[in-house]
Amino acid sequence: MSFPLSPRARSGPRRRSLLAVAPAALLVAGCSAGSEGSGASGGSRPSAADRARARAARDSRELAERYDAVVAAHPKLAERLRPLRAEVVRHAEAFGETADSSPSPSLSPSSSGSGSPSASASAGVPAVPAKEKDALAGLAAAERELADRRVKALLDAPGELARLLASVAAAGAAHVYLLTEA
Predict the structure, then answer these.
(1) Region 81-91: what's the mean pLDDT?
(2) Mapping DSSP to helix (H, G, I), strand (E, B) and coil, where does residue 69 land?
(3) What's the CA angle centered on 108, arms 70 and 114, to 5 degrees?
(4) 128 DSSP 8-state letter
(5) What is the reported pLDDT for 107?
């Protein structure tokens, strides 16, 4: 005599086997989704954070070139601007700019004063005003504009990059103060 199947008996996988397989299935699904996303963004196109970091490095490098142009046009300002320019170069390095990729043709104050401003003007750096006060105001305006752009950019940046952008924007605001005072 055979026993009838109880109403609780089910055909298909048992609960224990599902509980044993579920974590492995989630792990496989999580790994494959992550690798697809990173492969698509890492192989053909840099991520948004990488693009923002490269843009910030380029902006800092261009600002350092602007400092170079002002120092070349107004050598008396070299001592005052040297620490600020050094900070701008450090900002570019913090964003990933390397010393090899940042051109700095007029780092030394001994370079010819007449050749550097015209070379920098043709490279995209605005012409330096003839008056020192106007040149400092131009640097302050460039620092202010860049700090404002970085504050806006940090809203879309991931954590660590957002903190770096905020810190560099604050330093830029301090540079504005130092350039406009005294």
Answers:
(1) 97
(2) helix
(3) 50
(4) P
(5) 42
Q: Would you say 81 and 68 are in contact if contact means Cβ atoms under 8 Å apart?
A: no
Fill in the amino acid letter for 133.
K
Return the HEC string of 90-114: HHHHHCCCCCCCCCCCCCCCCCCCC
Condensed to tens digits (0 to 9), the pLDDT of residues 114-132 reads 444 444 444 566 789 999 9
- Would the CA dihedral through 32, 35, 37, 43 be positive or negative? negative
pTM surpassing 0.85? no
Cβ density class 9-30: b for 16+ within 10 Å, e for less: eeeeeeeeeeeeeeeeeeeeee
- Strand spans (E) along 38-173: none
Specify the higher pLDDT residue, 124 or 24: 124
Q: Residue 77 is encoded by which pair of tokens?
A: 């300002």
